[in-house]
Structure formats: structure tokens, C-alpha cells
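Quick illustration, no need to memorize.
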Amino acid sequence: MNQAYPRARRAHSPAKGITALIFGILYAAFLLLHDLLPNRMGIALLVESILPWTGVFLALVLLMLLFRFSILSLIGFLVPTVVWAAMFGGALLPSSDESDPDLTVATHNVGARMPEPTAAAKNLVAADPDIVTIQELESLSGKIIHKELDSSFEHSQVVDTIGVWSKWPISNAEEVDLGLQWPRAFAATISTDHGDIRFYAVHMPSVRPGHEAMRNAAIRRLATEVSTDEADHVIVAGDFNTASTDSNMSALVPPLEDSRQEAHGGFGYTWPARFPVTRLDHILYRGFDATSDEVLNRGSSDHRAVIAGLDLK
């Protein structure tokens, strides 16, 4: 009896490493199927905004692997690691193109209560962008930044709370209807040294968990507008109030490309400025190649500014 009992216990014990395998496969499935998350109570909004951060679960699977190594636990670690790397690893590759781009584009939501707007404007100008788009110009800080940029750029176009400043002439400005009661986007033609481009300045509606319908509808409207634009070179820049990992952004990317995804160099988080955990501000385009994408140092806004270098195809 004493010899039979250990054999019986081993016969009924679970396979070594099965817990790590199950956990790893479930996490991989979650990554691949995150667009099926329910929108109720803002679950999809919250999870997809920080989706790359869920990679911390890989550390848990790794601990299981190290604690109880087996082929099953190794598979449980490798499968989600490959999936995570395929989805997000490209952003971590170094940016290798250091050539001067054909043009540089910057976007910044300056916020309603920026304590040092003049310094923020000068910091943006010091980055030497060719085109700048600013959101939330209705605030006092926005008005001060408006004045500062007017003294640094020869051409500008402002529609309600959104503005574009350029080293090149701006024409044919027209509001883009996002289905809202106030203007939150407009398009204009910028006549650069490399030819005309169609530039869309965007500020999507803000969201709270469980209240994303207005923003999602605005993204779809913008996607429809851009898809019917016959211009060869299109830039869509601004505060989208959503991360690129949000399934709703699939209406825009693709067919547009994202400067951070193409230029690499990290995730480029922009919000909140003090300790960014997600990227709400994007520079999207068609007919360009991104050579760089940089998030500027924290200013006094709750967003960090983004500046990207683009080459015409």
C-alpha cells in the first residue's frame, strides 16, 4: 500500500506546465480577438487604449515557465510572445533614417489650462516643423499660442478651435462634417515646395468609459471623407482621443498609414503628459513615407506634442 499510493497520486496529477500553456494560449487569443471586446461600460475603450501594456502578462507566464519548466510551459510562453511581438514589436525597432525629410508636421492639443503657453509655443517652433496643427484654441492659453505662431509662420488657417500654421500657402479650406454641433475638423490645400497636399486638421470628441458613440461615429465620418478625397498626398493630423490599438481606428489605418508605426522608435505615448500611458495624438497620411516620429518633452499641457518627418512617394 505504501508503494502504490505515490504512483496513484502521480497518475492523477495534472500535466506539468499545463497552467502556463492555458494561460498563454488564452492571452494570445485575447490579443488576436480584442476587437470583439464589448463596448458596454467602456470595457473596449479602456483595454484597447493600453493594449501594449498587457504584455506584463508575459512576465507572469515566464515566471511559470521558470518555476516549472516543461515543453507545455515553453509553448505557453512562446505563443503569446510571438503574437505580442507581431502586433507591437515593430514599434520598438530603432528609427534608422536620419536624412532630412521633405516636410515635417507637428500636432499639439494645448489644453484649456496651460500655465506656460508662450514657452510651449516657442518649444514647438524650436522643433522647426513646416506645418503645425493646434487643438483647443478657444482657451486663453490657446489664444496666446495662436499669437506666437502667427509671428513664426507666414500662413495660417483657423476654424473655430482648430488651427493650422504653415511655411507654405494654405487655400481651399473647408469644414469636415463629423456629425457634431460645432466644427472639430477641416481640410485645406497646402502648396508645398514638393507639390500640393491635402491637410486634415482633426480634434475628435472627448470620451468617457461607456460614452464613445459620438467619437466612433466621428471617426467613421472622417474615414468616409478621406476615402473620397482624390488627392495623391493626404495628411490627417490631430487629437483623435483614441489609441491606434482601438478597433475603431481600423476605419482609418489602413488605408492611411501611421507615422509612429512606420518610423518606429517606441510607442510614442502622448497622454497624460506627466506619465503617458497611451497615444491619443496621431499623424496619418497617404502618399508619404515616414522618416521620423518624435514626442516632444512634457510641456504644461495634458498632451505631449508629436512631430513627424515625411517624404513624398
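The first helix runs from residue 4 to 11.
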